[in-house]
Amino acid sequence: MFHPPLLRSGDTIYITAPARAFPIDEVQYAIHTIEKFGFKAIVGNTIGASYHQWSATDSKRAADVQTALNNPEVKALFMARGGYGCVRIIDEVDFSPLQKHPKWMVGFSDVTVFHAHLWSNFRLASLHAPMIINFKENTEESIQSIFHQLTTGVGSLNGAEGLPGYARGPLVGGNLSVLYSLLGSRSFPDLQGVILMLEDLDEYLYHIDRMLFALKRAGVLEGLAGLVIGSFTKMHDNQVPFGYTVREIFLHHFANRGIPLAFGANIGHHTDQRAFIHGADAVLEVDSTGNWQLQWQLT
What we know:
One of its GO terms (biological process) is proteolysis. It contains 9 helices and 14 strands. The chain has helices spanning 27-36, 58-70, 86-89, 97-100, 112-122, 140-152, 176-181, 205-217, 246-254, and strands at residues 12-16, 40-43, 74-79, 104-107, 126-128, 154-159, 161-163, 165-175, 195-201, 226-233, 261-263, 276-278, 281-286, 292-297.
């Protein structure tokens, strides 16, 4: 694993919209926030543009990301929002400039495409974190976690519900639906020996179960070191109930695996979510009462 340099005061952050459109009049608050933390902001040309539900055509969105990657002065890319669209451009972007000038890719949800691709192909760390669209509504602690991670390279989460055990490995994951959609592609990460972190939004309970069965039957979950479950927000059920909660679905798939399992991690689609470094060296400890702690750092 290698990682971009930690950010220093005065570094430049590039704001881009690789998926859905983001209004130009909403970006000023994020610029002010970035400057408040001591950094400079460049606004990409996808901000304020629109094409159907996206910020621009696939080629223009890819070009905006490429502009940031090619600029050695840019130290981080902050994604404006998710939705859907990153997978449509991932193969159009040339990531080779990151080998000479690695940069932080920052975002979550649909941006899981970038996190997974960078880890799978380059073993490059990135930041799973709130996006520009979240800056105004998220808690102060949530936004602070972004800049804390980018400037220190260390972090932690804890909770009070889990299955006991100890695991150490790279911290990898993100949105379950997006990871599932990458299965079989060169962007799907190798999960052997990793601590997998998962969250999701707006899914049917039966589909959570179906995605886990697909991943399990594909053999990609066999070597997991540990599993951390974040928020599964706005879950849906059918008129005839599925019969299992999200927690019960995960227990069905993982309770007998002999790996530590942690519930209630503060990541996902809610206003108090915390950032974590995707690819960082992490340790997960769950005691006999279910209390757990997850710690990570760049090495």
